[in-house]
User: Fold this.
Amino acid sequence: MTVSTTPATGHPKPLSWDELRFCPGCGAPYPLPLTTPRVCPACTRVLHPDPRVVVCAVLWVDGGIVLLRRVFKDRGWMLPGGHVDQGEAVEAALQREITEETGLSATITDLVGVFSTPGEPVVLLAYTATAQGIPQAGSETQTIRVFAPHDIPWDHLAYPATALALDQALKRFAATTIATAAAPSTFSCGKDVP
Ligand SMILES: [Zn+2]
Assistant:
């Protein structure tokens, strides 16, 4: 991330749309009441409230899924991930965040889904990814662990979207596993099935 950190407090909170009272182009105050989009009365620059894009991974390692807990503002178990910087490719942001938070180099395999909530600034993109090795907690991670699919701490996940992404990824994984297990034996020997 490009946002600087302070050890005492973690990441500073990003400026919200409601806090944007001055034109970032020329510094003029916006007239009240504030509007969406903001139109600067001095330089006519127009600003729209872009969503914040966050990317995360259901990261498979050795048959389990990596979950972690943050040092700051810990709310529960999270998927590895973070903010996508402006101009950064989403997949590159995900690989960067995975490396920062787990020490592993991941291969991104699939898109699980896109999650958003009315009134919330964050749009979450959840992927599946795989990696090999033993996850190591990064500087902003207090605990990191690989959970077997039947061992996911559903009651202690950080965000509703974490549960949604995990649930969808696991259902897809189960469907793929069942299909793969059921398919080959019938025809593999070239014999008719009685
Ligand atoms: Zn202006």
